[in-house]
Specification:
heterodimer; A: alpha/beta; 6-stranded mixed β-sheet; 4-stranded antiparallel β-sheet; 6 helices; B: about 400 residues; 2 domains
Chain lengths: ~220, ~400
């Protein structure tokens, strides 16, 4: 269960310019649900994902994920929480272009100092799951947009997280690749994962796999 | 169970350095060059200090020279008998020696005369006195530097000295002389006093100077003043006077080294300042990504530590090895001349190998930890920001 309670998030651009990104947000997402956050660019969708992933802290209010009050986590606890529970697919993928596909995918596992066999097993699983085995040794910068996105999803799933957060996942894809991405989401939902997608792509609206659509307009729930 | 050393982070650090190969290569080259320069300065200083210390230790306690019109003249050997009457003097030996200028090579040799049954004033001369053939009439032991110069000028078995009257004095080379130190023995030729007198035209009753040994070191100054009273026309030089004069020359030369040292340290700190003043936007973003996918601050810092350690330790080792080769194998061309002089009047000498763990530790602490700190601090700044802020 993910709960956002009375969330307010303000950004200080400079001393005289404080922007309110979210205002009085209350959201509840049940385990295994696929939720779509809709809204125009700059409406505050990405900020909500950041708060759920403990990438940033709310100015006021509370974010609860399962039994964890993630908005109160100190930095290292937040990192552990992300590593063990969250798979984040960023809008621009946030891959390291000079690393190979497999090096990018296993990045979240490196600090865990796992046995090589364990890392290889996890890697093979996601490479197969997202159909990128044949690109495993290629540098990410040489891949197409769709392939890069599959690498990003594979990385987000390497540690079998319970929650998948995707920020504008189809913003850089054509319709065919976007539909393929939706197919991948179906598979993840079938595995029982909780999925939150922030998007303004109409392809996601009214889909049968979507449990809830939440619309945000200028930091306020519509 | 997680072991303390994470091989994956080390591997990632190496990868990270290879990904920025031009930048890493440039930093490694500059750091290596600076460490090489610093180490070379320290190694040369240590060697010469060691050499000077050994030379000073082997100096006689008191040297008595006759002075006339402010210039050094030959002293009467009969003065020895008077000096020996002074209480506290354990021995007094007349020395016959001088500098011989070998025109073909443009160098000076120091020729020292000894007698077979005379008490020698230096241990190294005792060994030579045993080996030197006094009966043959003309044989000599030469220092390694002298040997090189003579061989270069086709004198393999003997040497012809030109006497003041223009005639030649042929002296056979009996062997190579190994003194206590290179500086002391390198340009030295040892032969019988009789031969030295002949080469320099010194009379039988005269000597170059007299060296005096004193039983109690505390009495040196008192005995020196007594000799001065006895022979007012002499210059009485004590070991301490010589020590000061050697030290003055060394300190003056050290000043030049200090300037080089300051310049290299200054350059090093400019690099450090440049590193510490910030990361590129790509480096910052990479830290943000790593944080966003679950790396902790200490994971990021460990990885950066390995990066800094690999570069600085590699540079440290390379710099030290290059400096060792430069100083002790190639004899520090250019730098050594600052200490020993550019003049060709002296024969070349090799720097003695002095292994000083404190010097190596000092260079290590001046380079490796400072560079690692300069790598970690800006990364720590980025890693402690909210990941969201860094990525955006």
């Amino acid at each position: 269960m993910i709960k956002l309670i009375d969330i307010v998030k303000k950004y200080e651009v400079n001393k005289n310019n404080i922007v309110t990104a979210l205002k009085d947000i209350n959201i509840e997402i049940k385990e295994g649900e696929l939720v779509v956050l809709k809204g125009a660019s700059g409406s505050g969708k990405s900020t909500i994902l950041s708060l759920i992933a403990a990438l940033s802290k709310p100015t006021s209010g509370e974010v609860i994920v399962g039994d964890n009050r993630v908005s109160k986590f100190p930095d290292n606890f937040a990192s552990d929480f992300r590593r063990d529970n969250i798979g984040f697919v960023f809008q621009k993928y946030n891959l390291i272009p000079t690393l190979s596909v497999k090096e990018n995918i296993i990045l979240p596992l490196l600090p865990m100092n796992l046995h090589v066999k364990e890392i290889e097993t996890k890697l093979e699983r996601v490479l197969k799951m997202f159909h990128i085995e044949h690109k495993a040794n290629q540098l990410v910068k040489n891949l197409s947009g769709g392939e890069q996105q599959r690498v990003a999803i594979a990385r987000a799933n390497i540690n079998t997280p319970k929650i998948i957060l995707a920020d504008e996942p189809t913003a850089n894809l054509d319709e065919k690749l976007s539909l393929h991405f939706i197919d991948m989401l179906k598979e993840l939902k079938a595995e029982g994962k909780t999925i939150v997608v922030a998007t303004h792509d109409p392809l996601f609206f009214g889909l049968d796999i979507v449990d809830k659509e939440i619309e945000i307009h200028q930091g306020v729930l519509s | 169970m997680r072991s303390k050393i994470n091989i994956y982070l080390i591997e990632y650090a190496i990868n990270s350095l290879l990904r920025q190969k031009y930048k890493s290569f440039f930093i490694t080259v500059v750091l290596t060059a600076l460490i090489f320069l610093l180490s070379s300065l320290f190694f040369i200083t240590n060697s010469i200090k060691y050499e000077l210390q050994s030379t000073v230790n082997s100096l006689p306690e008191i040297v008595v020279q006759k002075v006339k019109a402010g210039r050094h003249y030959d002293i009467d050997v009969n003065a020895i008998d008077d000096i020996l009457t002074i209480t506290g003097v354990s021995s007094a030996v007349a020395r016959v020696w001088g500098y011989y200028y070998f025109e073909n090579a443009g160098v000076n040799f120091s020729i020292v005369g000894i007698d077979e049954y005379e008490q020698q004033y230096k241990n190294s001369l005792i060994h030579v006195a045993k080996k030197l053939d006094f009966n043959s009439g003309s044989s000599m032991f030469i220092g390694t530097g002298v040997k090189k110069v003579m061989n270069k000028n086709y004198y393999q078995e003997y040497f012809n000295f030109i006497k003041p009257d223009g005639t030649l004095k042929k002296v056979d080379i009996s062997g190579v002389f190994n003194g206590d130190t290179e500086l002391e023995s390198n340009d030295v030729i040892v032969m019988s006093k009789e031969n030295v007198r002949e080469i320099f035209d010194i009379e039988e009753e005269k000597a170059t100077d007299i060296v005096v040994k004193v039983a109690n070191e505390n009495e040196i100054a008192t005995i020196a003043s007594k000799i001065k009273l006895m022979y007012p026309d002499t210059r009485v030089i004590t070991k301490d006077d010589l020590k000061i004069s050697y030290q003055n020359i060394f300190d003056y030369k050290s000043g030049i080294f200090l300037a080089l040292f300051v310049v290299s340290l200054f350059t090093f700190f400019i690099i450090i300042y440049d590193k510490a003043s910030g990361l590129s936007s790509e480096e910052k973003k990479e830290i943000g990504i790593l944080k966003a996918i679950g790396w902790r601050v200490d994971d990021v810092l460990k990885e950066k530590f390995y990066e800094g350690f690999i570069i600085s330790f590699f540079s440290y080792m390379s710099g030290i090895v290059l400096a060792l080769a430069f100083v002790y194998i190639f004899n520090a061309p250019l730098l050594q001349n600052i200490f020993t002089g550019y003049s060709q009047l002296k024969t070349s000498f090799e720097l003695p190998f002095v292994f000083d763990i404190q010097t190596l530790a000092l260079i290590f602490f001046l380079s490796v930890p400072i560079y690692i700190a300069a790598t970690i601090i800006p990364s720590w700044r980025s890693a402690t920001l909210e990941a969201d802020e860094v990525i955006r």
